[in-house]
């Protein structure tokens, strides 16, 4: 592990990012360009003290999970991500592994969707990023432990987002999630995190095990979702899925028809986010 060079790369990357690029207020009392350490820590889900130690060339070797969160927060391109992994003494994500980093251009697109809730998922359902509207609608996934930031895990093992709807919609969603993981396994048979997720679900959820045994595969599809919001009540929204082919990530966008109750609810939600 080259702590000194790793610290230099992290500090340089932090200095290149303007606060407004990541949806943070610029303020008027910034002494240096770029993000503050506490802002990087917030974006990566790390403690400020941990980021300080990294930038000072101190502390233990970062885990792959920490490196992934850090490179995502710093919006590093693939080559830059590989450099950070190597400097930290870790192997960069290999071909054949599920991509967990989001291109900076996709993060910019996500942030510019200010009127609609939107989030980006990995090929196995990890929530990689969400905009402010999605946080207000579904809750802040980044506040959960890393292994629980997965919509399939939440569907079968967690409390997660409450979907209230007909039994048919509940069943359809569960089958879609199981089929989604089957498709991911066929495409990424050597991904250890995917194997661990599937084994965990098989061992702990009888419903998942039963559906897994049926052997169905599927990909993400657009559909209607019924969501129970703590303040706005029951919302029926269109849920469209946009595929990013090169990474097999998906962007999920929630919307509602004009003049519908769902549109009125999203207007109310938008006003709370803007406050």
From TrEMBL:
**Pfam families documented for this protein:** HTH_31, MLTR_LBD
Show where the HTH cro/C1-type domain sits.
Answer: 30-81
Which InterPro entries does the record match to this protein?
Cro/C1-type_HTH (IPR001387), Lambda_DNA-bd_dom_sf (IPR010982), MLTR_LBD (IPR041413)
Q: What is this protein called?
A: Helix-turn-helix transcriptional regulator
Annotated CDD domains: HTH_XRE
């Amino acid at each position: 592990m080259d702590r000194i060079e790793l610290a230099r790369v992290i500090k340089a990357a932090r200095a290149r990012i303007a606060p407004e690029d990541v949806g943070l207020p610029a303020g008027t009392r910034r002494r240096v360009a770029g993000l503050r350490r506490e802002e990087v820590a917030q974006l990566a889900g790390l403690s400020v003290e941990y980021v300080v130690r990294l930038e000072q060339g101190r502390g233990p070797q970062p885990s792959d999970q920490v490196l992934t969160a850090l490179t995502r927060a710093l919006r590093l391109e693939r080559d830059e991500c590989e450099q950070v992994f190597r400097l930290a003494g870790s192997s960069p994500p290999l071909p054949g592994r599920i991509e967990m980093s989001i291109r900076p251009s996709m993060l910019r697109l996500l942030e510019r969707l200010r009127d609609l809730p939107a989030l980006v998922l990995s090929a196995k359902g990890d929530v990689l990023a969400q905009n402010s509207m999605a946080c207000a609608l579904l809750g802040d996934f980044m506040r959960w432990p890393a292994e629980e930031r997965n919509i399939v895990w939440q569907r079968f093992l967690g409390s997660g987002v409450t979907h209230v709807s007909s039994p048919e919609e509940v069943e359809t969603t569960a089958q879609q999630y199981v089929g989604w993981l089957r498709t991911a396994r066929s495409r990424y048979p050597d991904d250890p995190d995917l194997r661990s997720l599937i084994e965990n679900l098989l061992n702990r959820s009888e419903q998942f095990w039963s559906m897994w045994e049926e052997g169905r595969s599927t990909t993400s599809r657009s559909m209607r979702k019924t969501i129970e919001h703590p303040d706005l009540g029951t919302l029926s929204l269109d849920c469209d899925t946009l595929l990013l082919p090169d990474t097999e990530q998906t962007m999920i966008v929630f919307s509602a028809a004009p003049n519908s109750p769902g549109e009125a609810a999203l207007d109310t939600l938008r006003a709370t986010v803007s406050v």
